[in-house]
Amino acid sequence: MLIDYHTHHVRCGHAVGELEEYVQRGIEIGLSQLGLSDHLPLIHVDPATYYPEMAMPMDELPRYVEECLRLKEKYRQDIQIRVGLEADYIEGYEEQIRDILERYPFDYVIGSVHFLGEWDISDYRQTHNWEGRDVLDVYRQYYEAVQKAAATGLYDITGHLDVIKRFGQVPPVEQEAERFALEDAALRAVKQADMVMELNSSGLAKVCAEIFPSRRIVEQAIALGIPLTLGSDAHDPLKLSDGLDQARAQLQELGVQQLAVFEDRQRSFVPLNG
């Protein structure tokens, strides 16, 4: 059962390819289920004055959902399409996020932390914000936000849980225990919220050169009984499912036998292999 639950397309401004190209590519490579999960429009910064090409405009969101639903029906004999959204957690904007999510018939919602205030820690144009900061303190802020996101109950899947490592900023070895404690606290919050955690293979192509999250975090998640799913975070149809073979191999090594999937915000499971 081949699945990919994390994809982006041209509407978000920093990806290429139309939704239908992703669907056609998914059929070509033999996906059983394809999740379409573009970014929630920006709600806490002014898109006109913030960094460009961060997310789709708000007036595109209904068009996005309509197109997803149309493709879901058009290709239903060839591939199972799931209509999703990657919705940033923004502290203080929980009710606005809830209002947006409740307007649309999503199959699942990925809850990701990209923003610490107005700093998008995943944006290569904003890496200068690390200058002069204590790395562990930034990690502390980030993982506290992950915990708060889980506690909202807004999300089905926690996205790229340790994306904070994307550009290679990692606390020094002597602070490793504190880093691990932050990661584990975030995992406990995910477990408490009965959320799924994704293995996001896009990290393999980033500076960190590692799946999001790390193998250690995956092992801890398994020990806690957190269900797992897979996403490539593809921003190009030709990169759909890149690296997911490595993610599946890791899960097989760790004894995982099933993956979480969604429909109408309801979770079920499919075999990892076979």
Question: Can you characterise this structure?
Answer:
The protein is α/β, with parallel strands linked by helices and 274 residues long. The protein is 32% helix and 17% strand. The protein has 7 helices and 11 strands. It has helices at residues 19-28, 61-74, 94-102, 135-152, 176-192, 215-224, 244-253; strands at residues 3-4, 33-36, 80-88, 108-112, 115-116, 119-120, 157-158, 196-200, 228-231, 258-263, 266-271. A hairpin with a 2-residue loop joins β10 and β11 (266-271). The longest helix has 18 residues, at 135-152.
Question: What's the helix and strand layout?
Answer:
Layout: E1 3-4, H1 19-28, E2 33-36, H2 61-74, E3 80-88, H3 94-102, E4 108-112, E5 115-116, E6 119-120, H4 135-152, E7 157-158, H5 176-192, E8 196-200, H6 215-224, E9 228-231, H7 244-253, E10 258-263, E11 266-271
Parallel strand pairs: 1-2, 2-3, 3-4, 4-7, 7-8, 8-9
Antiparallel strand pairs: 5-6, 10-11
Helix pairs in contact: 4-5, 5-6
Short description:
This protein has 274 residues and is of the alpha/beta class. The chain has helices at 19-28, 61-74, 94-102, 135-152, 176-192, 215-224, 244-253; strands spanning 3-4, 33-36, 80-88, 108-112, 115-116, 119-120, 157-158, 196-200, 228-231, 258-263, 266-271.
